[in-house]
Design a protein that fits this description.
Elements (H helix, E strand, L loop, with lengths): L7 E3 L6 E3 L1 E6 L13 H11 L5 H23 L2 H10 L4 H10 L7 H19 L10 E6 L6 E17 L1 H12 L11 E2 L4 E3 L3 E4 L2 E5 L2 H9 L6 H10 L8 H13 L3 E2 L10 H10 L4 H23 L4 H19 L17 E13 L1 H44 L4 E2 H12 L6 H16 L14 E4 L5 H7 L12 E9 L3 H5 L4 E9 L7 H4 L5 H12 L5 E3 L22 E3 L11 E3 L4 E5 L2 E5 L5 E3 H4 L1 H11 L8 E2 L1 E4 L2 E4 L2 E5 H4 L7 H15 L4 E6 L6 E4 L3 H18 L4 E6 L9 E2 L5 E2 L1 E4 L2 E2 L12
Helix pairs in contact: 1-2, 1-23, 2-4, 2-5, 3-12, 4-5, 5-24, 8-9, 11-12, 13-14, 13-15, 13-21, 15-21, 23-24
Pfam families: Lant_dehydr_N
Protein name: Lantibiotic dehydratase
C-alpha cells in the first residue's frame, strides 16, 4: 500500500492498517487442565434424576465417585510444584490450603475444612488454565509478527515455557524506601524542589491553583518559588538567594525554613519523586547517587542495594516453590528492616500491586500471523472498526457539546472569553465519572440500538427471538454499515488507534495455518493503544521503535496527563510506557514523575474560542484543541461505551461471516439461580443442573457476579466447580443481597479449541491483541464534529 508507514501492514480489502507487531497473551497452564475436574457422566445421571429417569441412589453413587475422583485430582494439583510456585507468587496465605490437601492425601476425609480447601484450589486452578492474563510465569506474553503478505501462521515453540523472566520492585516499595531516605532531613538539600505539577506562578506574586482562588505570595515566597524549577538543588537555590542582595531572604537557613514551610503546605514537591515507570529503580538510584554528602549518599545507596539483592534472590528462586517462598519472606523481612514499614499494602484489591515485587515473563514462542488469517477476519473486523470509529466521533461530539456548555457558563460568569482550563477540567469530571447521567450513556445506548439493527435484533424480537446464534454475512452489507455508522474520521487523535482482542478457536497451530479456525472478538479497546502499557513494553526487544511508531500514528506534541498515584489501576505494569520525551505533560494534580522540560501546569492554561473551535493555549503560545487535552478521559469513556450486546436476559451469539463478535450471554440474579441457598453436595449439584437447563447454559461458562471484579470459570458438570460458584454466590448474597447481578457467558474457545503449543504438545488458551490504525486524520474542529 503506497504511503503506508513501515510499522504497518494492510488489513486486506479494507482501509485499515495493522501494526506489524501484535501481542499474544497466554495462560501459563495447559487448557487440558480445565477438564480434569469435569464430571460429564455425573451430569447425565443428575439430569436423568431431574427428569424422573434415575433414582436418588444412582445419583448418590455417581456423585460419590465424582467427588472421590475430584479429591484425587485436587491433591495432584496441590502437589504440583509449578502450581505451588504460582500460588506462592499470588497469595502466600493460600499455601495453607495446599499443605492441608497435600497432607490429607488423594483419598481424604472430606470434612468442612477440606471441602473449603478444595474450592480454593479449584478457583486458582481455573484461573491459571482458562485465562490469558499477563501476570508472572502463569500468564506469559510474547510479541507476534503480523504481515499481510506472509503465510497464514508460523508458530515455533522453544524448549521451555519461558524465554525470559524478570522481577521488578513495585513502585510503592521504591517510593516507601525513598520516603525512608527522606526522613534524614539533611538529604533534602541535595534534591531539586519544584512546584506541584498543577500549580503555576502568575504576575503580581500570585500562585495559581485550578480549584482555589489565586493565592497572594510574599516577596520571599515568590522569589523562592520562581527558582524552584525542578532542576536546581535546594543547596544551590539557598546559596544563590543568600548571595543575592535583592533577595528577601538573607541566610541559607531562612531559605531552607521557607522551603520546608512551602512543602508542608503542599505547594512544593521536595522529594526523591519516584516515577511510575519500568525504570523507576534506575531513576531512584541516579537520584541517590547525586546526593552531595558522601556518607548520606553511601548509606542511601546501601539500603537500596539491600532491597535489590533480596529482589535478585527472589528472581534466582524461579522454578523452586520452596526457595521462592523463603526468598519472598526474606525480601519482606529486609524491607521492614530497612524502612520500618510493613511489606504489603491494599490487601484484597485487584490491580493494586500489593506485594513488594512482581514478575514479568516472555513466552518461549515465535509466532507470525500472515495474510490468510488477516483476510479471514478482515471483512467482519472492518464492520467492527467502522462502529469503533463512529463511537469516537459520537463520544467526541457529545463531550464537546457538554464541555462547550461548561465553557460558556464559565465565560459568562467571569465576563471573559478566556477561561482557566483548571476550572473547566474540574467541573467536567462529573461528565466522565460518578453516578450522574453522562453523555457517554446516550452514546452507549445508541450503539446498542444500531448494532441490534445490523443483526436484526429489533424490539419485536429482543435477544434474538430465542435464537442461540444470529449470523450475518458482510456481503452486500456495506450500505447498511455506512448508514448505521456514518462517521468518516475519528473524533480525536487517540481515536485513530483501536486494539481488538481476538481469540482463535482451532485444534492446533497447524489448523490455523490451514485456515481451519474461528476467530472470536473479545474486548475491543476503542481509542486505546493497549500495547503501550509497561508489562507489554517491557517484553519487547525494542521499546524505542514502538514509541516512534505510536508517535507517527498519533502525531507530535500530544498532551500526556501526569497521573496521580490515586488514579485507578495505576501501577508500573499498567502505566503508559511509550512516552515520547518531546511530548508535553499535563500536570492536573499532585503527582510524581514531572519532567521540568515538558511539564505544562493546568493552572497556566486558558481555554478560548479560536476560529470556531475551543482551544487550549499555554503562556508560550502553544495551542491544542480542547478535546486533545481531554484525550485520556475520552478514551476511558470510549472503551466503556463499546458494548455490542444489549442487556436482555439472553443475547445470542452474534456472528459476522465466520467471526464471533459477541458470545452468547445470559443475565440473571442470585435470587433466580438458588445456588446460594443450596446445602449439601447433592442438593447443590441438582440446583446447578436445574438452573443450567432452565437457562439453556452450556456445560462450561464464565460467570461474572456483580460484586466481583473478574469473571470466574465454571464447569457445570463438576461438583467442585459448582461448589466454588455456589460459595461465591452465597458470599455476594450475604454482602449485597439476592438481587446482585449474575452474567453468564459461553466459553469460547473451550479447552479443545486452544491452539498455542509448547514443545511437549500441550496447548494453551490465548488471546491475540492487534493494534489497528484508522488511516483518516482526526476531527478536531468544531465544524467537523
Amino acid at each position: 500500500m503506497t504511503g503506508v508507514p513501515a510499522h504497518l501492514t494492510a488489513l486486506p480489502g479494507t482501509v485499515w492498517q495493522v501494526w506489524r507487531q501484535g501481542l499474544l497473551r497466554t495462560a501459563g497452564f495447559p487448557a487440558g487442565g480445565l477438564t480434569q475436574l469435569s464430571a460429564p457422566d455425573l451430569a447425565l445421571v443428575a439430569d436423568a434424576h431431574l427428569d424422573g429417569r434415575a433414582d436418588r441412589g444412582a445419583l448418590d453413587r455417581a456423585l460419590a465417585g465424582a467427588l472421590a475422583r475430584g479429591s484425587a485430582t485436587v491433591h495432584a494439583i496441590a502437589t504440583d510444584p509449578r502450581f505451588r510456585e504460582a500460588v506462592t507468587w499470588q497469595a502466600r496465605s493460600v499455601l495453607r490450603a495446599l499443605d492441608g490437601v497435600a497432607a490429607a492425601g488423594p483419598t481424604p476425609r472430606r470434612d468442612r475444612k477440606h471441602r473449603e480447601r478444595e474450592r480454593i484450589i479449584a478457583r486458582y486452578w481455573q484461573r491459571y488454565c482458562a485465562k490469558a492474563e499477563t501476570i508472572g510465569f502463569f500468564g506469559p506474553v510474547c510479541w507476534a509478527g503480523v504481515d499481510a503478505d506472509g503465510p497464514a501462521s508460523n508458530t515455533r515453540p522453544g524448549h521451555g515455557l519461558l524465554r525470559r523472566r524478570r522481577v521488578y520492585l513495585e513502585h510503592w516499595a521504591l517510593a516507601a524506601y525513598a520516603d525512608h531516605v527522606m526522613r534524614d532531613r539533611r538529604v533534602r538539600r541535595y534534591l531539586p524542589p519544584a512546584l506541584q505539577p498543577h500549580l503555576a506562578l502568575a504576575p503580581g506574586r500570585r500562585l495559581l491553583d485550578p480549584i482555589r482562588p489565586p493565592a497572594e505570595l510574599s516577596a520571599g515566597e515568590a522569589d523562592l518559588l520562581a527558582r524552584c524549577d525542578g532542576r536546581h538543588t535546594a543547596e544551590w537555590i539557598a546559596a544563590a538567594m543568600a548571595a543575592d542582595p535583592g533577595s528577601a531572604t538573607r541566610t541559607e537557613e531562612e531559605v531552607y525554613t521557607l522551603l520546608d514551610q512551602l512543602a508542608r503546605r503542599g505547594v512544593l514537591r521536595w522529594t526523591l519523586d519516584v516515577p511510575v515507570r519500568l525504570d523507576a529503580e534506575d531513576v531512584l538510584r541516579d537520584r541517590l547517587a547525586a546526593i552531595g554528602d558522601p556518607a548520606l549518599r553511601d548509606a542511601a545507596l546501601a539500603g537500596l542495594d539491600r532491597l535489590c539483592r533480596a529482589r535478585d534472590a527472589v528472581a534466582a528462586a524461579a522454578g523452586d516453590p520452596d526457595a521462592l517462598l523463603a526468598a519472598l519472606a526474606a525480601l519482606d523481612a529486609e524491607f521492614t528492616a530497612v524502612t520500618g514499614q510493613e511489606p504489603g499494602r491494599s490487601a484484597g484489591q485487584t490491580y493494586a500491586g500489593r506485594g513488594l515485587c512482581w514478575e514479568d515473563t516472555v513466552r518461549d514462542l515465535d509466532v507470525e500471523i500472515g495474510g490468510p488469517v488477516l483476510t479471514a477476519i478482515a471483512a467482519p473486523l472492518d464492520v467492527v472498526l467502522r462502529a469503533a470509529r463512529w463511537v469516537t466521533a459520537a463520544v467526541a461530539a457529545s463531550y464537546l457539546d457538554a464541555l462547550t456548555e461548561l465553557y460558556q457558563d464559565l465565560a459568562a460568569e467571569q465576563g471573559s472569553p478566556q477561561v482557566p482550563l483548571g476550572q473547566l477540567w474540574y467541573l467536567a469530571q462529573g461528565l466522565f465519572y460518578g453516578t450522574a447521567t453522562r453523555p457517554a450513556e446516550a452514546v452507549a445506548a445508541d450503539l446498542t440500538k444500531r448494532w441490534a439493527v445490523l443483526f436484526g435484533l429489533d424490539a419485536a424480537s429482543p435477544g434474538g427471538g430465542g435464537d442461540r446464534v444470529v449470523r450475518v454475512s458482510t456481503s452486500g452489507l456495506g450500505p447498511t454499515v455506512e448508514e448505521l455508522f456514518p462517521a468518516d474520521r475519528p473524533g480525536w487523535s487517540a481515536g485513530r488507534i483501536h486494539s481488538p482482542d481476538l481469540q482463535i478457536c482451532a485444534e492446533s497451530a497447524e489448523a490455523v495455518g490451514r485456515g481451519e479456525f474461528t476467530a472470536v472478538l473479545g474486548e475491543m479497546h476503542v481509542a486505546w493503544a493497549t500495547n503501550a502499557c509497561g508489562v507489554f513494553v517491557g517484553a519487547h526487544p525494542d521499546p524505542a521503535a514502538l514509541t516512534a511508531a505510536l508517535r507517527e500514528d498519533l502525531g507530535p506534541d500530544r498532551m500526556l496527563p501526569l497521573l496521580p498515584l490515586v488514579w485507578p489501576r495505576y501501577t508500573t505494569r499498567l502505566a503508559f510506557a511509550l512516552e515520547d520525551l518531546r511530548d508535553p505533560q499535563l500536570g492536573f494534580a499532585a503527582a510524581p514523575g514531572a519532567d521540568p522540560d515538558r511539564l505544562v501546569p493546568i493552572s497556566a492554561l486558558l481555554v478560548s474560542e479560536q476560529d470556531g473551535r475551543l482551544e487550549v493555549t499555554a503562556p508560550d503560545g502553544r495551542a491544542w484543541p480542547l478535546l486533545e487535552v481531554f484525550d485520556r478521559l475520552l478514551a476511558e469513556v470510549a472503551v466503556d461505551v463499546f458494548k455490542l450486546a444489549g442487556a436482555d436476559a439472553h443475547t445470542p451469539r452474534l456472528v459476522l461471516d465466520d467471526m464471533v463478535v459477541a458470545r452468547e450471554t445470559w443475565r440473571t440474579t442470585i435470587a433466580d439461580c438458588r445456588l446460594a441457598w443450596a446445602v449439601g453436595d447433592a442438593e447443590r449439584y441438582l440446583a446447578a443442573r436445574a438452573w443450567a437447563r432452565k437457562l439453556g447454559l452450556p456445560d462450561q461458562v464464565f460467570v461474572k457476579i456483580g460484586t466481583e471484579t473478574k469473571p470466574m470459570f465454571a464447569d457445570l458438570t463438576s461438583p467442585l466447580y459448582i461448589a466454588s460458584l455456589a460459595s461465591a454466590l452465597r458470599s455476594a448474597r450475604l454482602e449485597s443481597g439476592e438481587q446482585v447481578s449474575v452474567v453468564i457467558t459461553e466459553m469460547l474457545p473451550d479447552a479443545s479449541q486452544a491452539w498455542v503449543p509448547d514443545a511437549d504438545g500441550h496447548r494453551y488458551i490465548s488471546e491475540l491483541r492487534l493494534q489497528i490504525r484508522d488511516p483518516e486524520l482526526p476531527a478536531t474542529r468544531v465544524e467537523d464534529l
